[in-house]
Design goal:
Blueprint lengths: L8 E3 L9 E5 L5 H12 L6 E5 L4 E8 L5 H4 L1 H17 L6 E4 L3 E4 L2 E9 L13 E8 L27 H22 L2 H8 L10 E3 L5 E3 L3 E3 L2 H4 L5 E2 L4 E2 L2
Parallel strand pairs: 2-3
Antiparallel strand pairs: 1-2, 3-4, 4-8, 5-6, 6-7, 7-8, 9-10, 10-11, 12-13
Length: 248
């Protein structure tokens, strides 16, 4: 696989499913930007590339996807990937701890923001055309280090605060990749309804109100209330623009 000239990557020791090619990015790079650059240069040929950064204090990964349907419905891949991320975190964390979503992109662990996901797509792709690629990226706080005393930043949490193993980075990424393959396989075999139900199981909604996810990935509550997906994906709610990492 060729790479862009300014993208310094090397293979990893990640144990990934055959569909993936792992790449480790050093320095202060962020996985979303690097994976998107790779996709813009290589298009569908970059599909399956999973980029993992070495940034301190965060687990920062991104994967290039090859959608097979129009952009308007392909964005539901974001919800599928968030479900896979939640399954991976839940499998490695302390048992019976609540893990929920803040619509649509925030991952909340035991009532505090742990991180979130984001989605990129070609800038000029029409809604009813199939994009050459999508990029799903996720970032979780591994540790707040010296910058985030838990008592001073109660709105967020980190994996080390919640009792996760110190060497969780690779196992969690490997688990995410396996769950992502399984989730997309279920989507292909049984349609999106099952994936929607799994995502909604983590999403707090008003009790007693019927809720479903439509073709565009929007959450529909009752007969008229709509929570949009595409517009909110343009500015991740969990991302601190000053630090480039999860809001503390």
């Amino acid at each position: 696989m060729t790479t862009t000239p300014d993208l310094e990557i090397r293979s990893t020791a990640l144990a990934l499913p055959p569909a993936f090619t792992g790449r480790l990015v050093g320095g202060a790079c962020d996985a979303f930007t690097e994976a998107r650059s790779l996709a813009e240069h290589q298009g569908a040929d970059a599909a399956g590339t999973l980029v993992l950064t070495e940034r301190a204090g965060v687990l920062d990964l991104a994967v290039v996807l090859a959608p097979e349907e129009p952009l308007v419905s392909a964005r539901r891949a974001f919800l599928a990937a968030m479900t896979a991320l939640a399954d991976a975190v839940g499998a490695h964390g302390p048992p019976e701890m609540p893990l929920t979503f803040g619509w649509p992109d925030v991952l909340v662990f035991d009532g505090a923001r742990l991180g979130g996901g984001r989605l990129g797509w070609p800038a000029h792709c029409p809604e009813e055309s199939t994009p050459d690629w999508l990029v799903f990226s996720a970032m979780l706080l591994l540790s707040k280090g010296a910058t985030g005393d838990p008592g001073l930043t109660p709105g967020s949490t980190a994996l080390d605060e919640e009792g996760f193993p110190a060497d969780i980075r690779f196992p969690l990424v490997e688990s995410f990749a396996r769950n992502l393959i399984r989730t997309f396989s279920l989507w292909t075999e049984d349609g999106f309804d099952g994936i929607a139900a799994r995502y909604l199981a983590h999403l707090p909604t008003p009790p007693g109100v019927p809720v479903h996810i439509d073709r565009a990935g929007d959450v529909i509550l009752g007969q008229s209330e709509r929570w949009p997906l595409a517009r909110l994906l343009r500015e991740p709610a969990w991302l601190d623009p000053e630090t480039g990492t999860v809001r503390l």
